[in-house]
Write a structure and sequence with these properties.
The protein has about 450 residues and is an alpha/beta fold. Helices cover about 35% and strands about 20% of the residues. It contains 13 helices and 17 strands. The protein is globular, with a radius of gyration of 23 Å.
Length: about 450
């Protein structure tokens, strides 16, 4: 039995794809082993969202080669796809290169590589990369069991049409492609049967789920004839997943502000399984910066979306991403962004120092911000985020919450069970009875119950 080790870099979509490849290998008879010495096959699902991600991808590829010089090293995903798009050769330590939309063919690619190697040694890696910029179908990958017993990420969409000025992802992932509703529901049903209780719907640009299908239907003039026309958007998908027996919670990946409409929020609030936890991408709280970023909203519009969510969900957990030190960001613009983040009252704010990414418009912009200034602004925004998170969690003291119990943990030498509320606040439970994979209703009486 051959031994395979996999390592994932990057987002939840990458994590899903890595898990799907792991299942493929298991079914083909491979023994899955930790990412350390002794494997016959190393698969690294790479990331290219920043220059740091590129560097980490290269490091992991070289680490795999060093751990076993005779092993087969396969580089998959965004880093190698972007390198190909920029006309750069694959790293010399790699045997197989697998681009995006090709991971479904992993077993076939491994077989073809072995056949080629039998005939004659090759200096160049075996490469399977397609032109992701051209129209292509959704890549069907499947999971039958969650990585965690209680929760599973479900990839429902790929690609992005937004072309934000700082982002390389549209070039690495291609245009928007949506997974069929039937395929998603079959996977969710299988996961529910395996004991999964919560699903996280995720994609490269989740808010665009169904947009490609809808446009194609309109182009063909078949929109009215489609029996599933009501299920070709994100809300329809959520409703369908909501109907699956055994699934107790639905959580959403990152959303764009434009997805939050009155109809969406009104209908979503009527679905009790949907968690009141919304990650609404911001990037900057300054309109001038947003315009340079090629973001498609203003802070005023963004704030209205947050108000809508709070009108219908009461006290939802609103989380976001913010980039500091974007090209041209003055001190005044940064302070404007800080003030807006303060005004919104996020539960969590993920802070990123702008990383100059070759191949994007922002990389060539004037006014690149010095690293020490970025670091200072990052510290200030992080401190604001910590204060806001503490204030949000403090608001739950004395309140009853439902906790989906996920694991056993140890805190200061004492054993606890731990899980998350619907708002994704992590809670420690001092219970001896095994509660894993069940929901326990508790009252938060002190701050020590909240795991920070």
């Amino acid at each position: 039995m051959k031994k395979a080790a996999l390592h994932n870099l990057g987002c939840k979509v990458n994590a899903y794809e890595t898990a799907a490849m792991r299942e493929m290998l298991e079914k083909a008879g491979y023994e899955i082993v930790p990412f350390q010495e002794g494997a016959d096959l190393y698969i690294i699902n790479t990331c290219t969202v920043t220059n740091i991600a590129d560097r980490k991808s290269r490091q992991m590829l070289h680490r795999a080669r060093k751990m076993n010089p005779n092993a087969v090293v396969a580089a998959c995903g965004c880093y190698v796809q972007a390198q190909e798009a920029q006309g750069r050769p694959a790293d010399e330590c790699v045997d197989i290169v697998i681009g995006n939309n090709q991971k479904k063919d992993l077993l076939q690619i491994l077989e073809q590589y072995a056949q080629r190697k039998e005939k004659a040694p090759q200096k160049e890696p075996f490469c399977r990369i397609s032109d992701i910029s051209r129209p292509c179908g959704y890549e069907e990958l499947h999971l039958t069991k969650p990585g965690e017993h209680t929760r599973a990420c479900i990839k429902v969409q790929d690609g992005c049409n937004q072309f934000c000025s700082y982002c390389i992802i549209p070039y690495a992932r291609g245009r928007v492609r949506s997974r069929s509703l039937d395929s998603v529901i079959r996977e969710v049903e299988a996961l529910a049967l395996s004991g999964c209780r919560e699903v996280v719907l995720t994609g490269i640009h989740l808010s665009s789920y169904g947009v490609d299908v809808q446009r194609q239907a309109e182009k063909e003039g078949t929109q009215k004839q489609r029996p599933d026309a009501g299920h070709t958007d994100l809300l329809g998908l959520i409703r369908a997943v909501h109907d699956v027996d055994g699934i107790l919670r639905i959580r959403l990946g990152s959303l764009e502000p434009g997805a939050i409409t009155g109809e969406f929020v009104r209908e979503a609030a009527g679905l009790p399984k949907l968690c009141p936890h919304f990650h609404l991408s911001l990037q900057s709280g300054c309109n001038a910066t947003l315009k340079r970023m090629n973001r498609k909203y203003t802070t005023e519009e963004y704030y209205e979306k947050c108000r809508l969510l709070r009108d219908y969900f009461g006290n939802p957990a609103l989380t976001t991403d913010v980039i500091v030190g974007f090209p041209g960001e003055t001190e005044e613009e940064f302070q404007e962004s800080m003030a807006f983040v303060d005004q919104v009252d996020f539960y969590e704010t993920h802070i990123f120092k702008y990383s100059r990414r070759e191949g994007t418009k922002a990389a060539a912009m004037a006014g690149q911000v010095p690293e020490d200034v970025k670091a200072k602004r990052s510290r200030q925004m992080l401190e604001l985020g910590r204060r806001k998170q503490a204030a949000y969690e403090k608001g739950f003291l004395g309140k009853e919450v439902e906790v989906l119990v996920e694991e056993r943990i140890c805190i200061n030498g004492k054993a606890y069970q731990a899980g998350h509320t619907k708002e994704y606040i992590k809670i420690a439970l001092d219970e001896e009875e095994n509660l894993q994979n069940g929901i326990r209703r508790i009252r938060i009486v002190n701050d020590s119950q909240i795991i920070h």
